[in-house]
């Protein structure tokens, strides 16, 4: 229960996994691998932030939205492994930023999730990563995050 204690210390309460917006599951475990579907930045059933980073939203608001997407990804992960102490390593994070064409700070936005994972998991939270700008995301979410995680069996 080390990770649960760390979450509590950080003031993070993991929600229920987000309900799929289509025909998919929030996360699927295959052997020691967990593949987490794209998680948007819904918090308590609503978007705290909505729109494009660089237009309606600042970089700082995008960063916070990425953090929320990261919390949702951890909720999906916990739903299939039960105990986050089983995380061996966050292997890959792909972050999509709903942004204007001239916005170029996608990595700094996705740091909202990446820095959260390091606070929670230490070095096991540092992943290979991509941060991409896109023209739009579901429900005008500013961020969508997907992950691959290796767990202890």
Key terms:
153 residues; alpha+beta; 60s Ribosomal Protein L30, Chain: A; 5-stranded mixed β-sheet
Task: Describe this structure as you would to a colleague.
The chain has a single domain, classed as 60s Ribosomal Protein L30, Chain: A. Helices cover 31% and strands 29% of the residues. It is built from three helices and seven strands, in the order H-E-E-E-E-H-E-H-E-E. It has a five-stranded mixed sheet with strand order 1-2-7-5-6, covered by helices on one side. The chain has a two-stranded antiparallel ribbon with strand order 3-4. Strand 5 (87-98), helix 3 and strand 6 form a beta-alpha-beta unit. Helix 2 packs across helix 3 (106-121). It is globular, with a radius of gyration of 14 Å.
Our measurement of the CA-to-CA distance between the termini, rounded to an integer number of angstroms, reads 16 Å
Instruction: Identify the CATH class.
Output: Alpha Beta
Low-confidence segments? none
Overall 3D form: globular
């Amino acid at each position: 229960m080390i990770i649960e204690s760390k979450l509590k210390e950080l003031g993070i309460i993991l929600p229920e996994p987000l309900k799929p917006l289509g025909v998919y599951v929030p996360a699927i475990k295959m052997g020691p691998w967990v593949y987490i579907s794209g998680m948007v930045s819904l918090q308590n059933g609503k978007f705290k932030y909505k729109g494009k980073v660089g237009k309606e939203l600042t970089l700082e608001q995008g960063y916070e939205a990425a953090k929320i997407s990261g919390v949702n990804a951890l909720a999906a992960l916990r739903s299939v492994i039960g105990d986050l102490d089983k995380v061996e390593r966050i292997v890959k994070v792909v972050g999509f930023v709903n942004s204007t064409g001239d916005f170029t700070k996608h990595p700094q936005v996705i740091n909202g999730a990446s820095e959260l994972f390091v606070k929670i998991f230490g070095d096991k939270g540092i992943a290979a990563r991509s941060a991409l700008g896109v023209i739009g995301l579901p429900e005008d979410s500013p961020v969508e995050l997907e992950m691959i995680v290796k767990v202890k069996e």
